[in-house]
Design a protein that fits this description.
The protein is mainly α. It is about 50% helix and about 10% strand. The protein has a 3-stranded antiparallel β-sheet with strand order 3-5-4. It is globular.
Length: about 210
């Protein structure tokens, strides 16, 4: 890569590469990894998350992740309720504008308020008792089910070149969410194991009776 970078920018190349790798992660879910330490050779690795049963959640697939995960992050940092005007202010900073067709997401408002809402990743509602009417975004039921708060916090930390621990209140909440998810998964697995054991015993009893 250095061979095709103009010498004027070679000193800035590490920062250029860092920002490019963040963009690859943000939009495509691809992580740029060095093949060997100090080798200056890199490869792209998919870092998309799955739902826990091996199936890939559409939340982490292209193009959904490129706008959904940052939006969930904004909502999370605002304690699960982000005013619509705040959301568009953030999106504008990322070069995504209402009414202006985006090369990846198409018409942003339609993608957000229709597709992501219909898929239940986001909830879009009027702020109670607002006059004139104002609207806000919240995590949808599918986001709560499929996406961990820690993953979103790690994502936010990465694009801000910081650590999840730099968001102390949200980090504590994300840790609690991780623990609850682990307990729910363990309970599900225990239930599945118990059911399988019961089915096995029933089958054995059935064959014993036949004999």
């Amino acid at each position: 890569m250095l061979k095709i970078v103009h010498k004027r920018y070679r000193e800035q190349f590490p920062e250029i590469l860092r920002k490019a790798s963040v963009s690859l992660d943000l939009v495509f879910g691809l992580e740029l990894k060095e093949i060997k330490p100090n080798s200056q050779s890199y490869t792209l690795v998919s870092n998309s998350d799955d739902t826990g049963d091996g199936s890939l959640s559409s939340a982490w697939q292209f193009p959904t992740r490129g706008i959904l995960i940052p939006l969930l992050g904004v909502i999370f940092l605002r304690h699960y309720s982000a005013p619509e005007e705040d959301v568009w202010e953030i999106l504008n900073m990322w070069g995504i504008y209402e009414g202006q067709r985006h090369v990846i997401f198409g018409e942003p408002r339609k993608f957000i308020t229709q597709y992501l809402v219909n898929e239940k990743y986001l909830e879009y509602r009027q702020v109670p008792n607002s006059d004139p009417p104002r609207f806000e975004f919240l995590w949808g039921s599918r986001a709560h089910a499929e996406i961990s708060k820690m993953k979103v916090l790690e994502f936010l930390a990465k694009i801000n070149d910081t650590s999840p621990r730099d968001f102390p209140c949200h980090y504590e909440e994300a840790l609690r969410d991780e623990e609850e998810r682990a307990q729910a998964t363990a309970a599900t697995m225990a239930g599945t194991t118990s059911k399988s054991t019961g089915d096995s015993r029933a089958t054995c009893s059935h064959y014993s009776h036949l004999e």
